[in-house]
Amino acid sequence: MWELILGHSLTIEVVGGRVYYTPYAGSYREVVIKFDIRSVGIFDVVSARLADGEVFDSAKLKNTVRFLIENDMRNVVIDLGNLEYLYSDTINAFIASNRHMLEVSGRIAILTEHPKVQDILKRAGLDNIMRIYRSEAEMIADSKEILRQTSSY
Hints:
By secondary structure, the chain is of the alpha/beta class. The protein has helices at residues 58-70, 88-103, 115-123, 136-151; strands spanning 2-5, 9-15, 18-25, 28-29, 34-40, 43-49, 75-79, 107-111, 131-133.
């Protein structure tokens, strides 16, 4: 179990490759959002698992990226899964998280297959500061190319 203090009490539990956020309000405890982490090539892919009616929490995304940095993960892809829309707070979270990752010589990318989300990311200019993958196959191909380029030195 990892504990992070980021302006409020928050516990991060890693169980079986999953990161669990648990905020505390008195003695009440509830898991708010869960992120699965899996390795694909050189990338650690972070996927939000949202229940029906649950909203993507950009603050938790920023906290997850901080957690990953503290645990020496430097090539992170945020998998937006079946998310159909992004709000400005999520765009801002991507920009802030990218800045934090660049400070430790890491990289953040985004994986989304949804055309509307791809368009929102492009209009926000995120494709100018980070890689946006349209499919997992594209991400795997890029991983192989990065490995090929770095192994030739």
